[in-house]
Design brief:
about 210 residues, TIM Barrel, eight-stranded parallel barrel, two-stranded antiparallel ribbon, about 30% helix
């Protein structure tokens, strides 16, 4: 498989966004969820998006945001793609008339294929690790054998990925893309240049 896409999530600083872009990331993720240690303000997000070079996608991550909150953020920040990481219904996701991906937290016994099929309007589906009470960014991997081989949407693999295991994950799952946050950090919300470049190098080698 060639051209596995990559997203560096939990960006809180302009320098980290530019670092991700320079390393070859296709997208950066901005977390609009106040309980997250990687949450950004509207002002931070605007500055980061404005600094991005061409062809790097800005993704806004939301967790069960109210329509008022989400509407205000979309009015203020020119995001390219939305990522719904809570229990948002398909009708809610579709209602914004903006490209989106839906995150699903995977645990044993789930019919992942059926869950993916429910979000017909999504551009893709991000599969993350289920941890009770934690919507994402757990730093834990799930059983990749639970990923359906013939999913109806492009699969973005997340959850506990690092430079050390992303090649094995790509070889097993054959995803459209991979998503990393904690695996390339020096501290929560602060990225590590060496880890980002190591991760991106592993992705490129695995996907070529």
């Amino acid at each position: 498989m060639s051209g596995v896409r990559s997203k560096i999530c939990g960006i809180t600083r302009i320098e980290d966004a530019l670092l991700a872009a320079a390393a070859g990331a296709d997208a950066i993720g901005l977390v609009f969820y106040a309980k997250s240690p990687r949450a950004v303000t509207v002002q931070q997000a605007r500055a980061i998006v404005a600094a991005l070079p061409p062809f790097v996608t800005s993704v806004g991550l939301f967790v069960d945001a109210s329509p008022c909150e989400l509407g205000e953020i979309l009015d203020a920040v020119p995001l390219d793609l939305l990522q719904f990481h809570g229990d948002e219904a398909p009708t809610y996701c579709d209602g914004w008339r903006k490209p989106y991906i839906k995150a699903l937290r995977v645990k044993p016994g789930d019919d992942v294929g059926a869950q993916i099929d429910a979000y017909d309007g999504a551009r893709g589906v991000l599969l993350d690790t289920f941890v009770p009470g934690v919507p994402g960014g757990t730093g834990e991997a799930f059983d990749w054998s639970l990923v359906p081989q013939a999913a109806s949407k492009p699969i973005i693999l997340a959850g506990g990925l690092t430079a050390d295991n992303v090649a094995a994950a790509i070889a097993q799952v054959r995803p459209y893309g991979v998503d990393v946050s904690g695996g390339v950090e020096a501290a929560k919300g602060i990225k590590d240049a060496q880890k980002i470049y190591g991760f991106m190098q592993a992705v490129k080698q695995a996907g070529s």
